[in-house]
Amino acid sequence: MIMRILSVFTAMLVSAALFVPSVDASATPASSFTVLDNSDYVEGGVEGALYTSFVPNFECRPYYERDVLPSKAVWQGLVRKYSTRPGPLVLDCEGWFFNGTDAQANLGRLKTLQAWAREIEPTKIIGWYNLAAHTTPENRRYYHELIAADRRTALFPAAYTGSALVDWTPRLKTAWTTARGISTTLPIYVYLWPQYSKRTTAGTWLDFLPTTFWEAQLEMARGMGFDGAVMWGSVTCDTTCRKKAKPVIRSTKAFIDFLQSNPPRSAALGRPTTASQIHSANYPAKYATDGDPTTRWVSKASDPQWLKIDLGSRQKIHSASLLWGSSAKNYTVQVSDDATKWTTVYSTSTGNGGVDYLTGLSGTGRYVRVHGTQRASGNGYYTLFDVGIYATAV
Ligand SMILES: [Ca+2]
Predict the structure, then answer these.
(1) Cα 232 from Cα 250, distance rounded (Å)
(2) The pLDDT of residue 15 is above 70
């Protein structure tokens, strides 16, 4: 499994180096999606993820605060200290950006630091943490020059946490559009953080997101077209932290497992989709299959409700992914040849939202229906951001 990921990554590295043009990924999910682990949640990294290194901002701060470069020996010492994992090397100097009048000077500094890091790491992808977000459109040429100096690179924007999924989705979109504004060809790995700051009278500490929120973030990053997501975490995660991290690690692993066992293209993408009811014209049924993971179908607040997709031809359905907002507690997935007589291929009475990855389905039909009979919150709605149907032709 690890080897497969590494070989995929090597292929990406090669394509990045050659600047092979790729299709505009904004309309369709990326053909492959890699999870990078830049956390300390699991000793040795999360299985199936690409374990990733990071030179942290606090190491660079003493230099950018005085606008002086570290010596080559000092910087290469930092690279050796932190570049201990097999994945990409991400560098973080959050005072040297391309968003002001010192962009030209900062370009010189970043080029120098990257070249010194490259001497230590001749083959790794080396990139800059969240630099795209701090590059104004008129200054993009500086980023282009940085890329031209070393094309074994990728973009690493950040889209952190949020208080609710619908508040967070604009951050993800912004991360996507700013990074794509820099390059239409380089891989883009978005930093996500399964933790958030929690304030009490005793102070502030970090806690973990509900797994449903984390699942949705990963799935949305995939649906948006990113080449992967980087799981950020505290630089050090103690025993208590690692224990609390376990649910999100389980979610991450389930996500990786699903990716590795399924083709990435949904048979439902862009197919005609209808629903029993819509909450308003802002939330039509088609938003569940439009390829944009941040738009959603919302039902009226009553039971039952259903969403129906016409795949256009009979297909053998083996798995599905349901990206919920407000969710169904009781629902079934059904297939049909005529949209009249339905066969249930999956049912649950314990739906809790987030993303449901349904595997091992066995059913053939032209139509697929998600049929909810009880909402998770008694007075809420059914909300689906995205429905992926994975199938083979018959
Ligand atoms: Ca959508």
Answers:
(1) 16
(2) no
For residues 183-209, average pLDDT: 87
Domain ranges within the chain, ordered by starting residue: 2-261, 273-393
Confirm whether pTM is higher than 0.90. Answer: no
Kind and range of the H or E element at 283?
Answer: none
**Which CATH topology does 273-393 take?**
Jelly Rolls (2.60.120)
Distance CA 352, CA 376 (A): 7
Q: At what angle do helices 103-120 and 140-149 cross, to 10 degrees?
A: 20
Write the CA distances from 99 to 103, 148, 179, 272, 340, integer angstroms.
6, 19, 14, 43, 58
**Amino acid at site 77:** G
Query: What is the 197 CA–ligand 1 centroid distance (Å)?
Result: 29
How many angstroms separate the alpha carbon of residue 290 from the centre of ligand 1? Answer: 5
Give the DSSP letter of residue 65.
T
Task: Assign domain 2-261 one CATH number from 3.40.50, 3.20.20, 1.10.10, 1.10.3470.
Answer: 3.20.20
Centre of ligand 1 from the C-alpha of residue 166, in Å: 12
